Amino acid sequence: MKGYVFHGPGQSAWQDVPDATIEEPTDAIVRVDVVTLCGTDLHILKGDVPDVRPGTVLGHEAVGEIVETGREVHGVQPGDRVLVSCITACGRCSPCRERAYSQCRGGGGWTLGHLIDGTQAEYVRVPFADLSVHPLPGALDAKDAVLLADIFPTAYEVGVLNGRVRPGDFVVVVGAGPVGLAAIATARLLSPRHILAVDLAAPRLEAAKRLGADAVADVREAPEELVRDLTDGLGADVVIEAVGAPESFDLCTRMVRPGGHLANVGVHGKPVTLHLEDLWSRNLTLTTGLVDTSSTPTLLRMAATGRLPTAPLVTHTFPLDRMEEAYDVFAHAAETGALKVVLGGEQHELVAVQPA
């Protein structure tokens, strides 16, 4: 079989790899139909995630079909169409019993495309299949469903829920990339009074409007002043950091109100200075997190009934064997306008989706 292999910072290739096989009785083998690329994959390729060993197949998001299961898998069977979650979970350890699956101590957590071979391949071995794959509703298109493997639960759990978004809140989302856009879409489920999206790129700000932002701001034009104007000088109730850069994190601290919540979602590859000399007296709640995917079944039900706007985030599609080209498009999003790049399924040509 073939897979997309990390060979070290700046080095990767779509190549022959060993076939995925059952290694533990709780494993399942999934034939991959659709995958997507993640900003975390770009961090790995830059060398920001040293845990990833050269020779690892990348990817932690997929939709596919079960082709084989271990003898202790009872929740799915060959022929089932499933979503492969970005998080695997043993289901037995103390964190798993608290639904903190990302902190699994029994061999789960973020493993796919990180500690073991991932989903950007023709087949993938999924550990702890009963908790780590989700049967798909028949009406849900694969290229929409794959966005629920990571970005939607990440945005909802680490951004919206950790940020304690409530009805009537003023919410700022810094970073209108895929996760930031998903944060805007899922924050709207909780009826905030106003959502402001902040980014550098005009196309992403336009996408933020389509996903439900009430207003947008260019990060170079002092958005903290706009927040003060819109909140009578108080600041935002909730600020969601969805970039992963020291500058964006610092901007977030300047926009949140006293007693407010700052939810960090971005993956940081560099140290960030926390200015406690300015923040200690402001009663802020700062949260960080790796997604647990405990919300995935709920989000799947909502997507199946059209309550989640997943399709507008998919801007480019490729066949699976054009992985290297897809990565190039995704890595140069400022030039290509890429949001989510999806590979596989029935798509056979590059598609660039234009703004509505």
Describe this structure in words.
There is one protein chain. With 356 residues, the protein is α/β, with parallel strands linked by helices. The chain has 2 domains: 2-150 and 293-352, Medium-chain alcohol dehydrogenases, catalytic domain (Quinone Oxidoreductase, Chain A, domain 1); 154-287, NAD(P)-binding Rossmann-like Domain (Rossmann fold, 3-Layer(aba) Sandwich). It is built from 13 helices and 17 strands. Strands 3, 5, 6, 7, 8, 15, 16 and 17 form an 8-stranded mixed sheet that branches. A 6-stranded parallel sheet has the order 11-10-9-12-13-14, sandwiched between helices. Strands 2-1-4 form a 3-stranded antiparallel sheet, covered by helices on one side. Strand 10, helix 7 and strand 11 form a beta-alpha-beta unit. Helix 5 crosses helix 6 (178-187) and helix 8 packs parallel to helix 9. The longest helix has 11 residues, at 151-161. The radius of gyration is 20 Å and the shape is globular. The two termini are 39 Å apart. Residues 347-356 have low confidence and may be disordered. Belongs to the zinc-containing alcohol dehydrogenase family. Residues 8-343 form the Enoyl reductase (ER) domain.
Mean pLDDT: 94
What structural class should be given to the helix and strand makeup? alpha/beta
Helical stretch tally:
13
Per CATH, the superfamily of the largest domain is Medium-chain alcohol dehydrogenases, catalytic domain
